[in-house]
Design a protein that fits this description.
With about 625 residues, the chain is mainly β. It contains no helices and 47 strands.
Length: about 625
């Protein structure tokens, strides 16, 4: 028996792609009514069941304690749910998060004539929904309402910011550690951020940007005026996080009682509505969360919802849209009960491409792989399962893998038993987006027993914008091979029949390639059909400005760059997670594509390299470990 190789996952990471903020979308009404109209309620997206859940709220005469669902796959209708257990007291202006680890909705705080500080969970995973009070330990923060809360997936915590209790406005960031498990949780003292926090406030909006572990807040009310500032708190800054003011003010203008959500496709914060003075707002704005921030007005098509505040909103990752429910226009006794969608409609489907059928030899080690096409322009986490129908040890399992766009490469290795019988073993691989499990895809690989071994190895691969050159060595100089090629999302197809030359070399030059495209190549034994020696090659762009890759090694920042036509000078900035520039250099790029290095000594942490040439800018994430 050969040495056992446990299942392994291997990542190829590509830098994030900045996407313009020009997608304005189209408004449409999904439902004119359903639950009793209300404002000050909460709404979450349940990713495992692809539905909206709303809870609580107020209509100027009643505090609601009900729960309603809206299935998105069928576009409704609304259904009132009747969970078991003790129902939390009715309330408004509270917070709600979805905890993916516990598959539950957690509500905190709120108002019922006075500020509340209790924590409840709605278990979504059983045959029936169930309410349960969460017995918290630690020192609880002051009771509050009109605060914000997000799920911080970096630490498995609910992170709260701000709010008020009727007399005091808060600027703290208490955290509830949810990793202890239901029905317990612990209030913790978070790492004290470096520098002053944002001014105390209520009625703001917050999102957690998991791709870069940032808490982002916007707007609100400080007791005397509306606010229009945008702040972020990165959780991966070395040695401790620090609040950063991204925008003191902008074209959007100050507001309170608005809604906001993370647009995963375009790496941006989208804001809708709110209150300014006595005016209810109906506008929509977006600002990028990658690179230099600026507010862009979303001049959406279609008939928009009436201006409103104190409504609720979530992002629908399956259909790429913002969903808005309820709120009030001005008269507290006449709230809204309608559901609206601001749809952008980009494809968020996951595509997986298996490495193709291959062969096995008893006692050897086999590797199978899959390429995951990440539809989002930010890092994502994917769950996966691998299942071999013949039940070989270590040949089935699963886990989680994360990586940047555009392609995440997953490889699974396992030993073939010495006693493995001939024939075929079929492997099924399924992959899903952990933030939206409805986004899933699968593929199949067949392993066939190889009775005669032929040594075949790839000895050369080279790509230009015009061609790909490949060379293999084969121990059997009489063997005939079918060369197959594949592009991501397509099937393998034969492009040539090859025979080794007198030295055993197999050489092929593929000139039918497109610049900027990734191709897979593999050889199939023309006799047995066994597949060997798969390779994936990126064909570079013909020319143009680009930051292909950035990394840090030996106290130097390394950049693989292409210059824009007619320009040879570029500015390089190295920025830490708090937005502070630790390095700025102006470099000369002599060739169309060039590898550059800049001496730079920085502490370990996560940084961003930004390359600017004329009006063009590109950036990439850099992890410093040394």
């Amino acid at each position: 028996m050969k040495t056992i190789v446990l299942a392994t996952a291997i990542l190829f990471i590509f830098p994030p792609v900045a996407v313009g903020q020009t997608a304005s979308g189209t408004w449409s009404q999904l439902s004119p009514s359903g639950p009793p109209a209300r404002w000050g309620h909460v709404m979450i997206y349940d990713p495992r069941r692809d539905r909206l859940l709303i809870h609580g709220g107020w209509n100027a005469s009643e505090f609601f304690d009900d729960v309603w669902e809206y299935p998105l796959a069928t576009n409704g209708p609304w259904h009132q749910l009747t969970p078991s257990g003790t129902v939390p007291p009715g309330r408004a202006f509270h917070s709600a998060i979805y905890d993916p680890n516990g598959d539950r909705m957690i509500i905190y705080g709120g108002y019922q004539g006075h500020a509340l500080g209790d924590v409840w969970e709605l278990d979504l995973g059983g045959t029936t929904l169930a309410w349960q009070s969460i017995a918290t330990t630690g020192t609880p923060p002051p009771a509050r309402f009109w605060h914000s809360a997000v799920f911080n997936d970096r630490y498995g915590r609910m992170t709260v910011f701000g709010g008020e209790d009727g007399a005091t406005f808060f600027d703290d960031t208490p955290e509830l550690d949810l990793r202890i498990g239901p029905p317990a949780a612990e209030w913790t003292t978070p790492v004290q951020p470096v520098g002053p926090p944002p001014p105390a406030r209520c009625c703001h909006e917050a999102i957690f940007y998991p791709a870069y572990s940032r808490l982002v807040i916007f707007g609100g009310w400080n007791g005397s005026t509306e606010l229009g500032d945008l702040w972020e708190l990165p959780y991966d800054t070395f040695p401790s996080p620090g609040w950063t003011l991204r925008l003191a003010a902008g074209a959007i203008g100050p507001r309170t009682d608005h809604v906001a959500a993370l647009d995963r496709v375009r790496n941006r914060l989208v804001v809708h509505g709110g209150v300014l003075g006595v005016e209810r707002l109906g506008d929509a704005w977006a600002t990028t969360l990658v690179g230099a921030p600026s507010w862009d007005s979303l001049a959406a098509a279609g008939t928009p919802p009436a201006p409103r505040g104190d409504h609720a909103a979530v992002y629908d990752p399956v259909r790429d849209r913002l969903l808005v429910y309820g709120g009030r226009e001005g008269n507290p006794a006449a709230p809204f009960g309608d559901l609206w969608a601001l749809t952008w409609g980009a494809s968020t489907a996951i595509h997986v491409t298996c490495s193709g059928d291959t062969s096995f030899t008893p006692g050897d080690t086999v590797f199978i792989s899959v390429d995951i096409a990440n539809p989002f322009t930010a890092p994502a986490s994917f769950g996966f399962t691998v299942h071999g129908e013949r039940g070989w040890p270590y040949s089935s399992g699963g886990g989680s893998i994360g990586g940047f766009t555009p392609i995440v490469h997953l490889q699974w290795g396992f030993p073939v038993p010495d006693t493995a019988a001939g024939g075929t073993n079929t492997f099924g691989i399924r992959v899903w987006d952990e933030a939206a499990p409805m986004l899933a895809d699968s593929c199949t690989i067949h392993l066939t027993h190889m009775t005669t071994s032929v040594l075949l190895s790839l000895v050369e691969q080279h790509a230009t914008a015009d061609e790909v050159r490949l060379a293999w060595y084969s121990s059997d100089r009489a063997e005939q091979w079918e060369l197959e090629r594949q592009e991501p999302g397509s099937l393998w197809r034969s492009i040539a029949t090859l025979v080794p030359d007198g030295t055993g070399r197999i050489i092929y030059v593929d000139r039918a390639v497109r610049p900027g495209t990734r191709y897979g190549y593999r050889l199939k034994d023309a006799g047995s059909g066994a597949v060997q020696s798969e390779a994936w090659i990126d064909v570079p762009e013909r020319s143009g400005f680009a930051l292909h890759r950035a990394w840090y090694a030996s106290r130097e920042l390394w950049l693989d760059v292409s210059r824009a036509s007619g320009e040879d000078r570029a500015r390089v900035e190295f920025i830490d997670s708090g937005g502070r520039r630790v390095l700025t250099r102006v470099l000369t790029i002599d060739d169309t594509r060039q590898l550059l290095s800049v001496p730079c000594r920085v502490p370990p942490g996560v940084y961003f390299a930004r390359l600017t040439q004329g009006a063009r800018s590109a950036s990439g994430k850099v992890l410093v470990l040394e």
